[in-house]
Structures are given as C-alpha cells and as structure tokens.
C-alpha cells in the first residue's frame, strides 16, 4: 500500500488546526474574553484526530450502501436544528448540554461525500435531491454562509463529473446557486460574535503581525474552514473532511 501524502498523515495534518485555535484563544484573551471559550475547539480537535485515524481503516467495498446511509444521517442531523430552541429565530445549532454545534459545519463534508458517491454511481435523481434538501434547510435555518460553502462543493462535484449528462450537471449547479441566493435573501437578526465571526478583526486590532500570524495559520489548512473562532462545529467539520480525504486515498481492505 502506498503511503499517504505527507500533508495527510496524522502527525502533520492532525495538528494543523491547533495553531489557528491557539492564536484565536490568545487574541480573544487580549480583548478580555476568556480562553475557556476555545476549550470546545480543543476537545473537538482531539475527537477529530481519532475520527480521521479510524476512517482510514474503513473499507470502500460497499459504497452503494454507504451513500444513502450517509445522506440520510447527515440530513437528519441538519433537519434536527429546527427542533432545538432558536436564537432570535435562527436555528443553526444542535445543543449537547452546554455546547452548541453548528450542524451544517459538521454534516456538509459527509453530504458532499454521499453526493460524490451518488454521482459516481449515476444515481442522478438522488444526487439532485441531495443538492436541494440541504439548501432548503439552510434557507429555513437560515444560514447563508453554510449555504455558500455547500454550494461551492456542489459546483465542483457537478462541474467536474463528466460521466453524467450535461443537463444533469447544469441542473445540480442551478439548484445549489438558487438555494444560496434564497438563503442570502433571508433576514439574519444575529450580530457577529467578536471571538467567533469577527476573530480576524480582533487579531487586526492587536497589530499587523498578529493578523498575519492568524492568516498564515489559516492558510496552512489545505481545507478552507474557519477554525480560528470559538466553536466545535467547524473544527469537527475540518477533521471530517480530513478523514474523508484519508479514507478516499486508502485502498479498500480485503
């Protein structure tokens, strides 16, 4: 078995998110915010390393069975956000005790994996459904940022899968773009949280060097996920994507 590329080996890739997480915690602390808010990031990173390691031991022998299970599970988790109490009418999170997880950040990598499997099997009706359903949920939540992130992945998958008819590719791209537009059209009453969405602004307030350090730390992640701010969802999402990459590059067991 050929070894994984250096960048995907756990002793390297597994620790890449720790640098932006620690920088984010320090920047937040400098602005009077307790670094304890970033404790969930570190716990999520530890769980993520275990997940990425386990995924590379799994087999690809039954992708036809795996795709529907992945899709149904991920959609159920994403839809579950609508059952939890909202924040000013916004439903983006699943509450696990005191921790709130952005469900879309966690599930989108798995939805895109299922999407790739369905496209590779030419199950085109299911593939289009798996474009529409997450975007409908992003509109309902609403979460324009995650709708955009999901759309980027869908556009890559549909535009590069040349084995399916052009009409299906155009339909997939159109559905996700329209869904993103509707998500952005929904009013979002929530203000940006300084140590989450505005963490780069806090770094800039500390000076150019800290802003550059934060950007370099984020740039070192070969998967563009905002793990710099406090929150476990995006960290778990990043490690899920890492595990999927490792999974896809590991030959099936016999």
TrEMBL record:
Membrane topology: Multi-pass membrane protein
Alphabetic keyword roster: Cell shape, Membrane, Transmembrane, Transmembrane helix
Record localization: Membrane
A Gene Ontology term for the protein's cellular component: membrane
Biological process, per Gene Ontology: cell division; regulation of cell shape
Location, primary (coarse class): membrane
Entry's transmembrane regions: 6-28, 40-60, 66-87, 207-239
InterPro entries assigned to the protein according to its UniProt record, in alphabetical order: FtsW/RodA
Protein name: Uncharacterized protein
Protein species of origin: Cystobacter fuscus (strain ATCC 25194 / DSM 2262 / NBRC 100088 / M29)
